[in-house]
């Protein structure tokens, strides 16, 4: 027997960044939304804290056997089990976000069953097929029925890729409201910094992408650059980076203080207080535009050129990190950052996306 919950929209996510960005969409959907967690990030100690900080109840994964598998295993397992789930309880629409394996699998499962697929943060392009995320983006763009582009440039990428114009909408990015909702006030920020022994003027860094962690020379150069910034560096250490440091026997400079992973609310407190951020994260490139903080992106390419164009960030190879940090900390750069609005929207993206998930799906089902 197939159940058809009235008006229900399945919001599919599996990683901590997806939870953070889709929580505002779930709140905007209200009773019309159903959260579907795949468990791609499978550590409950970390994911449960993210759920709670985003105003959601922790969820048991709807898919089993995903965490720790290869990319092919993860996608295949999720497509199979999500398809079975959507067959039993067929949603009105399937919402996916970004470019993860969960995004790819959720879009496939919805598309194969003839369920309208809504892609949040559609149209990002690095034009670097070596990035697994780029493959996921291209696949989901081919499958989605409603494309929620965060920026006009993202929309142009879709149109240039022959996506029908009538299916592309510039909504903004829910990261703006997510950061606003999660950012601790000044008193809580002070307590969090004190609890981790951090003083004003520090640099905040995160490193986790394979292009940095899987190349010992690159990882060594990145750590060396952090050590030469002339300021104390806080480095909440991603498990992948911890393993890489041990595997490659890379030394951490004395100026770099390694911290355990922190929840996102604490990370935002650190980010608002840091003088500079150095990261290879995609989400951080967006968040600094809301916090108005300078960022050095240690990557060879980025799918978020809007942050660079607006002056919030700069792309850098590890060996150029110090020079780019000096540039981002110049008086001219800091003045521009302080007076520039985020290119990712006005904080109403989740409402627009929720309306498209409800109304767009209804229109598509009537065709």
UniProtKB/TrEMBL annotation:
The keyword Isomerase applies. Its EC number is 5.1.3.14. The keyword Ligase does not apply. It is an enzyme of class 5 (isomerase). Pfam families: Epimerase_2. One of its GO terms (molecular function) is UDP-N-acetylglucosamine 2-epimerase activity. Keywords: Isomerase. Residues 35-355 form the UDP-N-acetylglucosamine 2-epimerase domain. InterPro entries: UDP_GlcNAc_Epimerase_2_dom (IPR003331), WecB-like (IPR029767). It comes from the Bacteria. Belongs to the UDP-N-acetylglucosamine 2-epimerase family. PANTHER family: UDP-N-ACETYLGLUCOSAMINE 2-EPIMERASE (PTHR43174). This is Non-hydrolyzing UDP-N-acetylglucosamine 2-epimerase. The lineage of its organism: Bacteria, Bacillati, Actinomycetota, Actinomycetes, Kineosporiales.
């Amino acid at each position: 027997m197939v159940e058809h919950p009235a008006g229900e929209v399945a919001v599919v996510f599996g990683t901590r960044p997806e939870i953070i960005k889709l929580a505002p969409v779930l709140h905007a959907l209200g009773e019309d939304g159903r959260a579907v967690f795949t468990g791609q990030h499978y550590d409950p100690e970390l994911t449960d804290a993210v759920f709670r900080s985003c105003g959601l109840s922790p969820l048991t994964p709807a898919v089993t056997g995903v965490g720790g598998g290869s990319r092919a295993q993860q996608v295949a397992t999720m497509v199979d089990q999500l398809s079975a789930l959507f067959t039993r309880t067929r949603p009105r629409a399937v919402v996916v976000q970004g470019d993860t394996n969960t995004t790819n699998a959720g879009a496939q499962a919805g598309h194969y069953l003839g369920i309208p697929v809504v892609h949040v943060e559609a149209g990002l392009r690095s034009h670097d097929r070596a990035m697994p995320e780029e493959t996921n983006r291209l696949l989901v763009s081919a499958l989605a029925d409603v494309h929620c582009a965060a920026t006009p440039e993202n929309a142009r990428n879709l149109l240039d890729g022959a996506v029908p114009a009538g299916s592309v909408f510039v909504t903004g990015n829910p990261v703006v409201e997510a950061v606003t909702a999660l950012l601790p006030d000044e008193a809580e920020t002070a307590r969090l910094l004190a609890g981790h022994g951090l003083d004003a003027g520090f640099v905040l860094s995160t490193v986790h992408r394979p292009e940095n962690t899987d190349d010992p020379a690159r990882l060594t150069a990145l750590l060396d650059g952090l050590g030469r910034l002339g300021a104390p560096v806080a480095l909440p250490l991603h498990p992948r980076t911890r393993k890489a440091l041990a595997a490659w026997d890379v030394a951490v400079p004395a100026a770099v203080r390694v911290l355990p992973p922190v929840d996102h609310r604490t990370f935002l407190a650190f980010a608002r207080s840091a003088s500079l951020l150095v990261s290879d994260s995609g989400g951080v490139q967006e968040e600094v535009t809301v916090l108005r903080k300078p960022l050095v992106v240690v990557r060879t390419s980025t799918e978020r050129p809007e942050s660079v164009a607006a002056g919030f960030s700069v792309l850098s190879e590890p060996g150029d990190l110090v020079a780019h940090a000096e540039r981002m900390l110049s008086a001219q750069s800091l003045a521009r950052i302080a007076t520039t609005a985020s290119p990712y929207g006005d904080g109403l993206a989740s409402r627009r996306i929720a309306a498209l998930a409800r109304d767009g799906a209804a229109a598509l089902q009537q065709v």
